[in-house]
Amino acid sequence: MKQLQGSPWLLAHRSMLKPNQPMKVSLLGNDYVLWQDSHGTISALPNACPHMGAMLSEGWCVNKPDGSSGIACPFHGLEFDRSGCTVLPGSNKQTKSLLQPLELIVQGDFIWSYGGYEQKIPIPSIMNEIAAEYEFIGVTGERSLPTDILSLLLNMHDYNHQNGTHRELFEIAEVQLKKFIDEGLHSHAYLSQPRKQPKWRDILKNPGQLAMPKVLEAHLENFFPFMGLLHGEDKLLSLKECHFYLPEAENQSRVFVLMYMKAHSAIAHLLKGNLLKLIDVVVEQDANILSKIYANTPQGIKLNNEVGMDWVRRNFNSFPTVVEPNLSR
């Protein structure tokens, strides 16, 4: 897992953490237990108990008199505080730290980490800006996928796969890449995607399609390697669909989507739940196809509109340095 060390990774949104309930997260080949106490303080420790390796995420939170909380091992009930110290049975003396805490950067509701590595690129401010201006709808599409991070990123930046992977969902007739702006580890893609007219049975099955116009004008903003952002504009609403990617291990990746909205009509509020369901279906379709590819197959065919995939490959091979070519068009 050496290629992408120094990138920030969004581990979770605060809403994904229930108070005093541990959550397992994996990053760059290591497992951690993440939890939030009653004061909203968020902590993370390696997930293996230093006694016999039990998963601390399968344990429970222990509330302290000062309102803070530690984590208890499910095997023998050993309690560890947020610094990784414990008190052994029969002893009133606290041990030194036995678990090295994972350094977190908590910005409002966003829980970031560099996975214990030196920062190579900064956390962008855009999520804080979106949270300040838009209504948070919810989290959707969270999946752990049996695929390497490069394959996941290539799929997420493949502007042609709507015609195959998502053909029944969006009925895209054509993908037109209008512009691609290459700014190194940051890029913008502007797509125009005429749709076939959905049938009534499709609308009844997923009313979220009512929010989709006949031509999908998409502005995709990409932050390599951890985030892709869809800026959606419609007469009913403005949408920010924020996709996050994490390398859990060599051949295991995780994805989840944070959804934000600015309503231009009262009808938009009725579509929140359906929008979350719609994107969950999109991620499920991507997950399904990624589980059925031969990732190391040499590419013998090149389609049009593959500039996003070229951008991923270049940045993956040279990270964190940005090398030529500039792929703007």
Structural class comes to alpha+beta
Number of helices: 7
Helical coverage, percent range = 10-25%
Mean pLDDT: 90
Distance between the termini: 32 Å
If strands are numbered along the chain, what order do they take across the biggest sheet?
Answer: 10-16-15-14-13-12-11
Q: Whole-number radius of gyration?
A: 22 Å
Percentage beta strand = 25-35%
Contiguous runs where pLDDT drops below 50 for at least 5 residues: none
The biggest beta sheet is recorded as: 7 strands, antiparallel
The helix-strand sequence is EEEEEEEEEHEHHEEHEEEEHHH
Q: Number of DSSP strands?
A: 16
Cα shape? globular
Layout of SSEs?
Blueprint (H helix, E strand, L loop, with lengths): L8 E5 L9 E5 L2 E7 L5 E5 L13 E4 L5 E4 L6 E2 L24 E3 L2 E4 L12 H8 L1 E11 L3 H8 L10 H4 L5 E7 L3 E9 L5 H6 L9 E9 L3 E7 L3 E13 L2 E12 L2 H5 L1 H19 L16 H12 L11
Antiparallel strand pairs: 1-9, 2-3, 3-4, 5-6, 6-7, 8-9, 10-16, 11-12, 12-13, 13-14, 14-15, 15-16
Helix pairs in contact: 2-7
Molecular structure report:
With 329 residues, the protein is an alpha+beta fold. It has helices spanning 126-133, 149-156, 167-170, 200-205, 266-270, 272-290, 307-318, and strands at residues 9-13, 23-27, 30-36, 42-46, 60-63, 69-72, 79-80, 105-107, 110-113, 135-145, 176-182, 186-194, 215-223, 227-233, 237-249, 252-263. α2 packs antiparallel against α7.
Keywords:
three-stranded antiparallel β-sheet; metal-binding; seven-stranded antiparallel β-sheet; iron; alpha+beta; monooxygenase activity; 2Fe-2S; 329 residues
What's a quick, concise take on this entry?
The two termini are 32 Å apart. This protein has 329 residues and is of the alpha+beta class.
